[in-house]
Amino acid sequence: MKKRMIMMLSVMVAFFATIGFVKFRQVQAAIAQASSFQPPPEAVTTIVAKEESWQPTLSAIGTVAAVKGVTVSADLPGIVDEISFDSGDAVQKGSVLLRLDTRQEQAQLAAGEARLDLARLNHERFRGLVQTGAVSRAEYDAAAAELRQAEANVREIRATIDRKTVRAPFSGVLGIRQVDVGQYLTSGSPIAPLQALDPIYVDFAVPQQELGHVRVHGSVRVQAEGLSETELTGAITAINSVVDKSTRNVQVRSIFANRGAKLRPGMFVKAQVLLDATDRIVSLPASAINYAPYGNSVYVVEELTRPGGQTYRGVRQQIVKVGTEQGDLVVIDSGIKAGEEVVTSGVFKLRNGVAVQVNNQTQPGSSPAPQPEDN
Fold first, then answer.
1. DSSP class per residue in 136-186
2. Bridge partners of residue 282, in order along the sequence
3. pLDDT at position 371, please?
4. CATH of range 42-54+278-358; options 2.40.160.60, 3.40.50.300, 3.20.10.10, 2.40.420.20
5. Are the C-beta atoms of residues 220 and 202 closer than 8 Å to each other?
6. What parts of the chain have a pLDDT lower than 50?
7. Architecture (CATH level 2) of domain 58-67+195-274
8. Which pLDDT value is given to residue 375?
9. What is the rounded CA–CA span in Å between residue 51 and residue 349?
């Protein structure tokens, strides 16, 4: 009985030892298989970095202003007798816009001209009499003074009548009419705004640290908000002599040809000052940059080596310093050299050492002046 018990125990120990050894070998094989497993490569697009000429620009927000712009107003009080324009009319310098009632002044002019005629006759009569000694020199001088006073009085009345005819001070486009026939206007009452629209000014501000790059006669491009197809090129005409102490910005004025009156005073525009110097730089699409608080980086595609000695195409994370932007492109000040292949899309799913498969059939936007189809 004892021998049978020992035999049964021996068989059981051998059985469990065999099962344990088989399971141990299975676990070892699974661990080896897991350690040798390589995930499939990530699909990315790439671009080869290269040096290129870069036209540096300085972006600013501008406001359109008329070269000549006023609100036409009444010089003297009176009742509107005639209106010779409609809202939005283009007028020439000197065109009659409005006439006030001048019946009272016309009557005063008639009386003044009658007094002038009488003064002129008296002056001629006294001239002949003073030569014969019939009148004194003092009486003749008084007659001459009355003549000059009558002439001045007539000129004053005529000037008053002329000032009650409102004319365009310069050629331009009128705004909305603000008066009606029969309305009484006081001195200075607005009639209509008048703006000269071609050429036109664009005013913008630049930071004081950029002032050294801006010069008079330098080129400026502007684009109006909501008019993406409208891009005009003009020139800087003046730089303010003082810096705004609250913003440390300097006001700059530029002038543009404005055929078709696409720009209107008061409009908001985006201005780009084209700076003189052109640099040789390395630029990448903005989609290639992995922005992070600890530092911006890109992924460079290289031939990497696995622990077993096998080579593969993978990525190396490279910290970079970015510079100015222009459209879809970003200048890389340091970290990337010309000739290196950089990932441009799929950056979010990468990490250092990951295998990649490059497919450049569809590339992200990389234009310095993109034109969105839907804006």
1. -HHHHHHHHHHHHHHHHHHHHHHHHHHHTEEE-SSSEEE------TT-EE-
2. 51, 332
3. 59
4. 2.40.420.20
5. yes
6. 37, 374-375
7. Beta Barrel (2.40)
8. 42
9. 28
